[in-house]
Amino acid sequence: MTAPFHPTPAELAILRVLWDREPCTVRDVHAALAAHGKDLAYTTVLTMLQVMTEKQLVLRDDSSRAHVYRAATPRPKAQKLLVDDFVERAFGGAAAELVLHALAGRKASPEELAEIRRVLDRMESKGR
Q1: Phi/psi class of residue 58: alpha, beta or left (left: φ > 0; alpha: ψ in -120 to 50)?
Q2: pLDDT band at residue 86 under the 50/70/90 scheme
Q3: Fewest CB atoms within 10 Å of the CB: 12, 18, 104, 121?
Q4: Are 71 and 18 in contact (CB under 8 A)?
């Protein structure tokens, strides 16, 4: 992907729909957003998908009458890009500060804490 990955909050909502259900038509995306309480006009969703295509956030297949959209970046890679950018801008690159703030700001479930421990154990065993 050559363009920077900086989706707006509304674009990120559309990407979440695509990651969960792709491929999707405009109608599919519109219905999924409406089901999650986002009351956008069909034409607004269409315009957003057109802009997202220009920004290389989504890929459009226009081989059939109804255009079909897919996310251009897989969810794990997109999440990494977003987190890396956020850590750099908000915490000066200090990932530990992000983790400390995240854990101090809300109660983590036992499952989340166990996953954090597994990640830390893997990192320690690799010497990171």
Answers
A1: beta
A2: very high
A3: 104
A4: yes
List the structure tokens of 105.
């700001």
Q: 43: which 2 tokens?
A: 């034409």
Architecture (CATH level 2) of domain 9-71:
Orthogonal Bundle (1.10)
Nearest to 58 by CA among 9, 23, 20: 23
The identity of residue 40, as a single letter, is L
Evaluate if pTM is beyond 0.70: yes
**What would the 3-class secondary structure string for the chain be?**
CCCCCCCCHHHHHHHHHHHHHCCEEHHHHHHHHHHCCCCCCHHHHHHHHHHHHHCCCEEEECCCCCCEEEECCCHHHHHHHHHHHHHHHHHCCCHHHHHHHHHHHCCCCHHHHHHHHHHHHHHHHCCC
Contact 116, 108 (CB under 8 A): yes
Structure tokens at 71: 């996310």
Domain boundaries, the chain: 9-71, 75-125
